[in-house]
């Protein structure tokens, strides 16, 4: 099992909790300050919750696969990472209002995902062989 | 952002003080005083946006307009990086003012254009702020002249003829007032307004609202008026004379003050002088009449009294003068001409006979009345002709009487015509008519004496429709003569002699100018009739 991957999963979990709360707070702030009609607010909130669920699932599968040294959960986690990365890109670029803080948070998250996917591939390669 | 211009209201015409107007040329920019729209920008909550700033560089001569397209970065971490909702920033809910935010909201939204936070960091802010500061710190026409404690007072009668001390003197407003004041010998040293100190005590601020530079009022001259009205000018001027009781009289009471203020073109006062008339009062005097006057003079100029700027003002004397003959020079087509010479007495340039109290022409002391613009006047006298009078001498005397000693040759067409611009002056044309009635049988060829002088001044309205200026176009002096019949000796006859001034308005009715109607520009294409043409 890869120690660095495990550490990364742990840090990712904490960071993601922070990211989720910050993004939620900023959506609330945006809805107060800017004009945020419901038809735009609903998709953003829904996608944020989907991302949270996806993230929890992904981290659980990833750490389980890393600790039990099985490729299947790791592979599934990799696929889910792609999904999460897409959602992160949504929050980075296609959100209704992208604030500078959003950009910073999402960029860090995307970087973490990138690092994680690289380490997961390495771990899968190590476990297969 | 560079194409947006809020103040460009008139199509194809330059808007005043609109720096972003594309219809303005460089010459028009040099006439602007400020830019009404200093910056055009998008919503300031965006993280990075283009801003077009317009400013006037007043240091350069002529002033030029500086246009800069800069990027404004919002340092706030919550600035909008992207707004994918297109109508996002069009619907902002306005902030409800609270007692804390009221001042800031007033500053932002209170003026004619909403200001943004850009005002605090505009690029040329230093030069603009200093020029604004200079703008406000100068005196303008009519503004009360400020002193250290209040303002320069010119006591004047308000409702009745009693003096009110709260009348401020306005800058560049030449005034003369007279009013009465209650005095008594016992209280003469306590009444402030009869003592010289009251008038020269506080110093005048050189610039408006700026306490740094002050100008002291100097005493220019003191004239002492005795109880029977005799005035003497004192030699030593600088001594301040305060009211004092002397032998049941109170002396050194201020009877008149005349201020002379010297100012610069920039609206600063550099000198102030006051001339006093001091008098004395007795125990029986209950009130005195004080007269006050203030006059302004620009530094380094010789004041030529104008009768209007530029058009004549009704009531001011018509300016007139002579032109000395130029010497004909040997070169053809050049003539050394000089300007117009005027009398320094502004009321003595063009005058008519003033009726004397005893109506007798020859006993009149030569009093002349000035011709004031717009005032038709008529005056006259009666001439007693006896048989012994010689006609030619009488005719010459009457002509001198009617025209005065220095009847001018040229009249200024504008109230501010300069003496060196000869073309601005209108020559007086002279006409002679005769009252002679031709009786076919008897043709009396006796000599003629002038009996009336009529000066007709034709003037027109010149300039814009909303602010027409009076301009004198034509002046005609008509002398009417009548025959002097020989009288049998011992008899005498009285002949009325009149002189009059008439002002005629010959202005043509105003024609408003309209813009040309827009035409529809329809042209067929060049080869519309191709096969045939």
TrEMBL record, chain A:
Coiled coil: none annotated. It is found in: Cell projection, Cilium; Membrane. It is a multi-pass membrane protein. Pfam families: Transmemb_17. InterPro entries: Uncharacterised_TM-17 (IPR019184). The gene is Tmem80. It comes from Eudromia elegans (Elegant crested-tinamou). GO terms for biological process: non-motile cilium assembly. GO terms for cellular component: ciliary transition zone; membrane. The chain crosses the membrane at residues 7-29, 41-61, 73-97, 103-128. Keywords: Cell projection, Membrane, Transmembrane, Transmembrane helix. This is TMM80 protein.
UniProtKB/TrEMBL annotation, chain B:
One of its GO terms (biological process) is cilium assembly. Transmembrane segments: none annotated. It holds the Pfam family TCTN_DUF1619. Coiled coil: none annotated. It comes from the Eukaryota. Keywords: Cilium biogenesis/degradation, Glycoprotein, Signal. Residues 2-101 form the Tectonic-1-3 N-terminal domain. GO terms for cellular component: MKS complex. Residues 138-299, 308-505 form the Tectonic-1-3 domain. InterPro entries: TCTN1-3, TCTN1-3_dom, TCTN1-3_N. Belongs to the tectonic family. Part of the tectonic-like complex (also named B9 complex). This is TECT1 protein.
């Amino acid at each position: 099992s890869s120690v660095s991957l495990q550490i990364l999963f742990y840090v990712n979990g904490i960071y993601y909790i922070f990211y989720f709360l910050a993004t939620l707070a900023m959506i609330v702030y945006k809805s107060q300050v800017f004009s945020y009609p419901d038809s735009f607010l609903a998709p953003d909130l829904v996608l944020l919750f989907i991302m949270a669920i996806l993230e929890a699932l992904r981290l659980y599968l990833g750490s389980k696969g890393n600790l039990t040294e099985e490729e299947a959960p790791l592979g599934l986690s990799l696929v889910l990472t792609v999904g999460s990365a897409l959602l992160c890109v949504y929050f980075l670029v296609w959100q209704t209002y992208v604030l500078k803080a959003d950009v910073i948070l999402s960029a860090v998250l995307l970087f973490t995902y990138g690092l994680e996917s690289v380490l997961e591939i390495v771990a899968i390669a190590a476990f297969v062989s | 952002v560079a194409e947006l211009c809020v103040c460009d209201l008139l199509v194809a015409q330059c808007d005043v003080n609109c720096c972003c107007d594309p219809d303005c040329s460089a010459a028009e920019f040099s006439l602007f005083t400020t830019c009404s729209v200093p910056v055009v920008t998008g919503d300031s909550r965006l993280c990075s946006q283009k801003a077009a700033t317009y400013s006037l560089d007043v240091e350069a001569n002529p002033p030029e307009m500086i246009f800069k397209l800069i990027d404004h970065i919002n340092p706030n971490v919550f600035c909008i990086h992207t707004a994918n909702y297109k109508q996002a920033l069009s619907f902002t809910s306005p902030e409800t003012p609270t007692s804390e935010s009221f001042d800031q909201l007033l500053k932002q939204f209170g003026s004619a254009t909403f200001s943004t936070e850009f005002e605090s960091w505009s690029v040329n802010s230093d030069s603009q702020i200093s020029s604004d500061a200079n703008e406000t710190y100068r005196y303008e026409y009519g503004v009360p002249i400020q002193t250290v404690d209040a303002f320069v007072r010119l006591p004047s009668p308000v409702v009745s003829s009693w003096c009110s001390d709260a009348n401020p003197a306005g800058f560049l407003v030449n005034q003369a007032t007279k009013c009465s004041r209650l005095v008594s010998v016992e209280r003469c040293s306590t009444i402030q307004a009869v003592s010289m100190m009251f008038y020269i005590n506080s110093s005048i601020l050189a610039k408006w609202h700026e306490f740094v530079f002050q100008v002291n009022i100097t005493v220019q001259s003191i004239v002492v008026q005795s109880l029977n009205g005799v005035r003497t000018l004192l030699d030593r001027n600088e001594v301040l004379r305060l009211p004092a009781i002397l032998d049941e009289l109170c002396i050194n009471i201020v009877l008149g003050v005349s201020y002379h203020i010297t100012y610069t073109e920039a609206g600063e006062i550099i000198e102030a002088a006051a001339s006093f008339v001091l008098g004395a009062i007795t125990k029986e005097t209950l009130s005195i009449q004080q007269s006050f006057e203030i006059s302004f003079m620009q530094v380094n100029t010789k004041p030529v009294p104008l009768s209007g700027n530029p058009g004549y003002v009704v009531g001011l004397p018509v300016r007139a003068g002579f032109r000395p003959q130029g010497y004909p020079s040997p070169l053809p087509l050049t003539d050394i001409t000089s300007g117009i010479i005027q009398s320094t007495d502004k009321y003595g340039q063009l005058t008519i006979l003033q009726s004397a109290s005893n109506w007798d022409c020859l006993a009149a002391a030569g009093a002349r009345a000035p011709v004031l613009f717009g005032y038709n006047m008529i005056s006259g006298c009666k001439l007693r002709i006896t048989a012994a009078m010689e006609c030619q001498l009488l005719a010459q005397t009457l002509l001198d009487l009617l025209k005065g000693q220095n009847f001018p040759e040229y009249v200024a067409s504008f109230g501010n015509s300069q003496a060196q611009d000869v073309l601005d002056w209108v020559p007086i044309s002279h006409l002679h008519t005769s009252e002679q009635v031709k009786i076919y049988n008897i043709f009396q060829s006796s000599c003629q004496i002038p009996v009336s002088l009529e000066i007709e001044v034709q003037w027109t309205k010149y300039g814009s429709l909303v602010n027409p200026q009076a301009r004198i176009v034509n002046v005609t002096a008509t002398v009417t003569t009548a025959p002097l019949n020989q009288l049998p000796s011992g008899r005498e006859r009285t002949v009325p002699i009149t002189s009059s001034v008439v002002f005629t308005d010959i202005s043509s009715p105003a024609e408003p100018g309209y813009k040309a109607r827009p035409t529809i520009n329809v042209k067929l294409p060049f080869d519309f009739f191709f096969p045939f043409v």
